[in-house]
Amino acid sequence: MNIREVEVLKKLLEYWNETPKHSDGSILGSMTTIPHPLAQYAYNLFIHTNYADTRIFPVLKEFEEQVFNGLREIYGFFETGLVTSGGSESNFLAILAAYRLRNTSEKIVVAPDTVHVSVVKSCDILSIKLVKIPVNSEPVDPLLVEDYVRKYKPFLIIVTAGTTERGVVDPVKEVGEIASMYNVFLHVDAAYGGLIVPFLYKRGLLKKNLGFFDGVSSITVDFHKNGLTPIPSSLLLFRNSKFREAVTFPNNYSLSGYTFGILGTRPGGSVASIWTMWMLYGSDGFEKQALEMYENAIYLYEELSKLKDIIVYKPELPIVVFKHKYIHYKSLLSKLLEKGFYLYTSPSLEALRIVVMPHIKREHLNRFIMVLREVIEKINEYE
């Protein structure tokens, strides 16, 4: 290593030391976590590969298909899918594919107003009208979905399995029946809940499940959330191969002859890391992890409920939302940020949000509760 390389490395480490770490439990609001060491190794090992050209790197297609085979045991049969840069690209491509296949002049999508911002952005980019169903942070009522479908005649419905602000799960099966009845496509954004919902349902901890029920056209599942892979690595699963074909474009100069999605060059390391974690964890391993996350979330919910003047929303998935009766949530957030705790907000509920990701342990939660109590007492002293 030459002198210049040493200088750059030294500066890089200085910046790293100043960066918040998931491992210390301070990052409580983000849906990111610590990638598994083996997933990091797999990503780096295949960092030179391009998923956009599987003629050169056919092993990436092998990885992809082996993962799909495993996921079919969880979600039911689907023909194909693709690895994307994240939930935002997955949701965008699901909307684009549905629109191109429907080939309709009615550019309308219907979704609960809890839908992720990526859906809002995607519809804006594609000049599609997004009609939001008001749900007050609750799971959408299928009867209300049917009313909106009859009124607006959309080409696509979008529901969420694990909403961003509160982690609630929309009734996928029931909405799928409506989509099938009215010949409308249904996309399920399970970026967060994809590796949680089926396992909590299996254990009787959740009444709603996720899968390719009748009417479901596509599902988004992010592995860089609860799949423990490095960013970026999301999956977009398609019931029918025609959906993937709808977002595939000619690329004559490459050996594969085509490209798909938004990106041109695509990181093959993402595909390798997803395969690695699926082979390492499998269904049983992710089920165990989902249960641990859920148990920690219930623990946090119960401990927060003991605090005076704290309102807590009981979680469906491992996301705990809370607020103080008298202290504005943004004021409370500001004081917690000063203490080094990085929470996100749930604006529709005027509350704060903690996502109990795999790196969050009981000791982290206990330390947070202690600091929260101190912060509230301090604020009350000055009022």
Structure write-up:
The structure is a single chain. With 383 residues, this protein is of the alpha/beta class. It has 2 domains: 3-35 and 282-382, Aspartate Aminotransferase, domain 1; 37-281, 3-Layer(aba) Sandwich (Aspartate Aminotransferase, domain 2), CATH 3.40.640.10. Helices cover 44% and strands 16% of the residues. It contains 12 helices and 13 strands. The strands form 3 sheets. The protein has a 7-stranded mixed β-sheet with strand order 1-7-6-5-4-2-3, sandwiched between helices. Strands 10-11-13-12 form a 4-stranded antiparallel β-sheet, with helices on one face. Helix 3 runs parallel beside helix 10 (268-305), helix 4 (87-102) packs across helix 5 and helix 10 packs across helix 12 (362-382). It is globular. The model has no long low-confidence stretch (mean pLDDT 96).
Furnish the topology, listing elements before pairings.
Elements: H1 3-17, H2 37-45, H3 59-75, E1 80-84, H4 87-102, E2 108-112, H5 117-125, E3 129-133, H6 142-152, E4 156-160, H7 172-181, E5 185-189, H8 197-202, E6 216-222, E7 234-238, H9 241-246, E8 248-250, E9 258-260, H10 268-305, E10 310-313, E11 319-324, H11 329-338, E12 344-346, E13 351-355, H12 362-382
Parallel strand pairs: 2-3, 2-4, 4-5, 5-6
Antiparallel strand pairs: 1-7, 6-7, 8-9, 10-11, 11-13, 12-13
Helix pairs in contact: 2-10, 3-10, 4-5, 10-12
